[in-house]
Amino acid sequence: MAVMVTGWQIYLTYKSEMTALRDRFDQIEKSYIPSLKEAMWAVDEQRINVLLDGLAALPGIGSIILLDDIGTRWQRNNTSGNQAADSRSFTLQYHIGNDQYLLGELQVTLMDDAIYQSLKPKRSLSVSPPVYHYWLPLLFCCIYSVMPLAGIWKTWRVMRQHSTVTT
User: Hey, which of 30, 64, 72, 106 would disulfide with 76, CB 3.0 to 4.6 Å?
Assistant: First the structure.
């Protein structure tokens, strides 16, 4: 029973953490991409580096590679030894009126180390001693109080069948 509860808790935590990790892409797209486009359009390398450092500091970010339209490459890596959970590329285009200018591409890889960190405390919380101290005795009391009722029910049914047979 405890193993099933623990497994279920780990599964639910994993699903919720994976969803939160994938939501990081939306956060990057809404918060970082517009500023990064502006910095690339203005050719402000200091601002580009600050934005990439901020991106790399977000939880779950594994690597960031920014390639501009002339081949300049910026890269940030967080080496954790864990596997990549997901990856996405963002095309960076700057719009002026109806004109579009290709600035480059941002590749973001999310790592699963944040998920494993959140699962570690959950394993120790699986079935705590209060469950053993309060719920299990209550469960046994319920079972043992129902069992005699089943015996009474069976006796009553036998007596009822016996009385119908004799009348």
Answer: 64
